[in-house]
Amino acid sequence: VRSIKSLYLHHNFPPWYQFVTAAFCHATWNHLSSNLFFFYTFGKLVEEEEGNCGLWLSYIFSGAAANFVPWLILPKNAVSVGAAGAVFGLFAISVLVKMSWDRRKVLEVLILDELVVEKAAQAPAGTSGTFIGGYSVQSINHIAILSGALFGVFLNKALNLREKRDKTL
């Protein structure tokens, strides 16, 4: 659908909103379903700890950060879509939130880690250098995934510092 493609992150002079909207667009049904599965899994854990508003803010900011870094690094003819960076931001937040010495929480973190490692091992490797219609095609944007996860760590640390400051006041 032509109007949907205007929401993709086009790396040459994108409008600001494409950094966010690209995290809600997907290339295939398989792409959408795998991201929905991980969004449900990690989003549920983040929502339990941070609430509905915290979940959506974490998703949106992780998605925007995950799209910003590849925009700086990848060629200007690239196009980015997908929620993997935002979902990995939620993954990082959920793992850090669940980290404690409570046996149940440690087990949850180990299961989550196993799911992510297994899914990443099954994913096809990126095919950089392939061009379709003038755009570089890469099946997995590893830069976005890493950026989203790192931003999730940053966001978790920032929220924890704010909570500690609020408790001392």
Strand order of the largest sheet: 1-2
Stretches with pLDDT under 50, minimum 5 residues: 120-137
Query: Helix-strand pattern, N to C?
Result: HEHHEHHEEH
CATH topology: Rhomboid-like fold
Average pLDDT figure: 77
Head-to-tail CA distance between termini:
52 Å
The number of distinct β-strands equals: 4
Strand percentage: 5-15%
CATH class: Mainly Alpha
Structural shape: globular
Instruction: Report the CATH architecture.
Output: Up-down Bundle
Helix percentage: 55-70%
The total number of structural domains is 1
Largest sheet: 2 strands, antiparallel
- Class per helix and strand makeup: mainly alpha
- Rg calculated over all Cα atoms: 17 Å
Q: Count the helices. How many?
A: 6
Family: Belongs to the peptidase S54 family.
Domain Peptidase S54 rhomboid: 16-155
Keywords: Membrane, Transmembrane, Transmembrane helix
Transmembrane segments: 16-42, 54-73, 79-97
